[in-house]
Amino acid sequence: MPDKEQYVRLVCLFLAEQLRVKKIDLKRAAEIGQKVLDNVNLLDSEHDFLHLIKELSKDFEELQSLQERVYFWTLSNQRKTMEDRVRNFAVQIMGTNPNAALSVILAAIQEDVTLEKLQQQFPDFSQYLVTES
């Protein structure tokens, strides 16, 4: 999710659903929406968005279910980003170093692996990410 507008849109869609099923009234939805808008400039990443929702959940219990959704969405998105980077790395070096490409791919398919762990385990992959940025 690249921009702050998308984060606000997610909250608005959540609030709209809560209004539709009558779990929240207009005044409460407006209060929550205003708090999100007041803090939107603090959002630079998915992690920041998750942190904001966690903090707001302390004052607005209605956001508990959104917090869970954002958490799982963040994990899923981190996994997808990692897989995309591993795929690009493997494509680039497969012709010259198939063993290194295969090693990184095999490590990446493990359930508990993170991008940071892969970078620590494979210096070539870490260097690739530095030059890719």
Multimerization state: single chain
- Would you identify the regions where 5 or more consecutive residues have pLDDT less than 50? none
> How would you sum up the major sheet?
none
- Shape descriptor reads elongated
Query: Number of DSSP strands?
Result: 0
Helix content: over 70%
Structural class: mainly alpha
Please, how many helices? 7
Query: What Rg, in angstroms, do the CA atoms define?
Result: 19 Å
Question: Roughly what is the average pLDDT, rounded to an integer?
Answer: 92
Total domains: 2
Distance between the termini: 18 Å
* Helix/strand order, N-terminal first: HHHHHHH
| Beta strand % | under 5%
Put the structure in a nutshell.
By secondary structure, the chain is an all-alpha fold. Helix content is 77%, strand content 0%. It has helices at residues 4-20, 26-39, 46-59, 64-93, 98-108, 115-121, 123-132.
What does this protein structure show overall?
This protein has helices spanning 4-20, 26-39, 46-59, 64-93, 98-108, 115-121, 123-132. The chain has two domains: 4-76; 79-132, no CATH class. The chain is elongated. The chain is an all-alpha fold. Helix 3 runs antiparallel to helix 4 (64-93) and helix 6 (115-121) crosses helix 7. The longest helix is centred in the middle third of the chain and has 30 residues, at 64-93.
How are the elements arranged and paired?
Elements: H1 4-20, H2 26-39, H3 46-59, H4 64-93, H5 98-108, H6 115-121, H7 123-132
Helix pairs in contact: 1-2, 3-4, 4-5, 6-7
